[in-house]
Amino acid sequence: MDYIKIRFGGSLDQFRNELARTIESLFGETAPFSMSPRTWRPPMDIHETADEIVMVCLLAGVEKDDVEVEMDNRAVRISGMRKEPPRNPDARFHLAEIPYGKFERILVLPVPVDPEKTVATFSNGTLEIRMKKLNQAGRRVVKVTRG
What we know:
Elements: E1 2-3, E2 6-8, H1 13-16, H2 19-27, E3 44-48, E4 52-58, E5 67-71, E6 75-82, E7 101-108, E8 119-123, E9 126-132
Parallel strand pairs: 2-5
Antiparallel strand pairs: 1-8, 3-4, 4-9, 5-6, 6-7, 8-9
């Protein structure tokens, strides 16, 4: 199993509220205008256990070295490139559904995680990211009283 290098972003807040991504996620391919270059979005599953958040991303045909994971304690950005194989110039396609080129997914996490304890592995075209939840024991509810 190969490990993916994770880069810790100073802040992924700028990615969380990008208007272009919101518009594209609402309208998909039929967006009336586009503010960013077209990318494809690999399918993902995210599940949560008592101790961690686990993301699984299907990246068939993508090389490990063409995948980048960037994160902070509240968001993860997965990006990379699926390279198009050489084509016979005389070939006539009857079906072409496989997307090539750049891809990107930016996901806000349901709870804070510890980026330093995150492990990303890549095997058989599947990227798995395991993120340890931050200990929330230090949190407390403060009772509001009349002053």
